[in-house]
Amino acid sequence: MNDVIARRSLRDQATPESIDAVHAQIEELWNDASFVPDLDRMTFATAVIEAATNVVQHAVPVSPAPVELGVDIFVKAHSLRAEVSAFGAADPELGPDAEGMPGPDAESGRGLALIRALVTTVTFARQDGTNIWVLSRDATTA
Amino acid sequence: MDLSYKANGSYTEVLASGRLNMVSAPKLRTFVADVVASGSNRIVVNLQDTTFMDSSGLGALIGCLKAARQAGGDLRIAAVQPQVKMVLELTSMDRVLTSYASADEAFGDE
A–B: how many Cβ contacts below 8 A? Predict the structure, then answer.
């Protein structure tokens, strides 16, 4: 029941181009998991791209080496799960400011609030010097 | 993302095709800023071929809206697809960026 049906992983230098690579991986993933409804594909893909974009835009390297973006996506029968990692990044020390949607004039700052609206659970952890976002979305029941 | 524009009488239509994400968002900003600078302040961004938009893309649209309004005009969006509609609704920005069924209808009330 909880077996992984399809999986895609990538790890690359965290650059804007890596976001297009994440898009491509997600699109390929659905080839192996055609049963996933459009609504779940759309919401989950948007959340994963938001998290990966957050790494590319905001992760600060802890050493002269650039930050690397890792994306690991799993499809199970009733859930979708993604681990979005920033390797070699400083602790972002997320505060209460990371909550909520900014005002209508704001041109940025909606990413985290949007992720929370798109998935069932979102957790952030710092493990062995790596920042890891775990996003999970339960399947929509028809 | 591919960007093009055409003058349609009282407004200029900007056609944005592909993904509107952090890679293409700055391109859209520059493109619309150039259209506004060339003298068009009534803009319709036609999103019929925009398959994906994230918060970076949304931020760019808001920036473009401000640019058009600062020039005394307005910016409207048309033909949004389901993913873009979802992002607009979840961020409540559908109240600011009203979507019209087609580019023709966007300034049709004026």
Answer: 68
